[in-house]
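Hey L., structure's done. Input below.
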Amino acid sequence: MKITQHPAADWLELRLAGRLDATWAQHVGDTINTNIHAGAHRIALNFAEVHYISSLGLRVILQYYKQLKSIKGELVVIEPSTAALTIFKTSGMQGFLVSDSWRPDTSTPPAATQQTRGGATYQIFPQPANVALTCVASGNPEQLAAGGYSQADSHTLKFASGSFGLGLGAFGSGFDDCRERFGEFMAVGGCAIALPTNDQHALPDYVVEEGALVPQVEALYALTGSGDFPFMIRFDALAEGAGKVGLTELTDALLALSGAETAAFVVLAEAAGIVGSCLRRSPTAGPIVFELPGVRDCLSFTTERTSDKSLALLVGVASRAQHGAAFLRPQGIDGELQAHVHAALFPYRPVQQGELPLGKVVKELLGSSNPTALLHLMPDTRPFEGVGETDLLRGACWVGPLNTISGT
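Output:
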């Protein structure tokens, strides 16, 4: 089978010629999959020269039709031959799959500001910002190592739409209820995700805002904020470079592109490798030990780079200044950039293209899949043994400058 590619504005036309049978179905599927991973989310399959389709071929087409539909993309069949159209009709797929009106879009889409920095290209979409972004630090992260936490350190936080947060907390009613479960949490877009520590095999739990139900977290310490993110920024790693963007490089670029010394950000990205840690037990049981061998009982680390692709939702605060010093940790080798970033990991799927609304994207993500892990992202810079830092491929970011972090 011969396959040729014909990009057209925001569509990709794949022209197929030959038999779509067991011999070629995998090849066609791999071609579609490769282009989806490269960012093509609207694909037209031209079947003018396809004269036979087996059940396996139909299955492959249906698989990627469903995958693209799940991320608000499209896959259509155009100009089918008489034989191909007959097969689509008898299989019941003609009605939703075959398009009689598809035409390549030759119009020029509105241009976003675009820059190339380091190993990636960035598209900047200014957003309406009616409410200035603010951030507040509460609690004391230094008590992790100093002596643990008690009821006096616990406070209740609510995360309605338009707010964000990250820190140590749990879902429950007050300190006593949450005592054994305190772990990493993050919140954005009317959703909160928390990792309980009372079970070593526990998965992240989450609450989504629904009507009068607002996500509520009992927190020991946190960075929280609200307001509008004035920039939505897409990034894509350059194929001719490393093919991935380190978290430090991305964070540095977000600060530069937003003109900020300190900023809050949210990222939804296709990840190539995740590096971070999470608590193994609640800090209410006593101080968290950060030295060997005791650290093994207190923290879980990604001692090897996770090589499988995943979809990562990040919430973080970063600074080149001294804002929030106790809450931020050095990023990269030189440590000039400081940040605190939590990430929830989901099964891999491509990030939708174009300009995206934050709240809708987050709720659709949690409505279609469950988080498999929740980590505090941090680089592993140990000589020889260090596994580096989190690497991302492409994604969407929402970022806003912070004039200060109150409470620090």
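The mean pLDDT is 89. The CA atoms of residues 1 and 18 lie 5 Å apart.

-- N.
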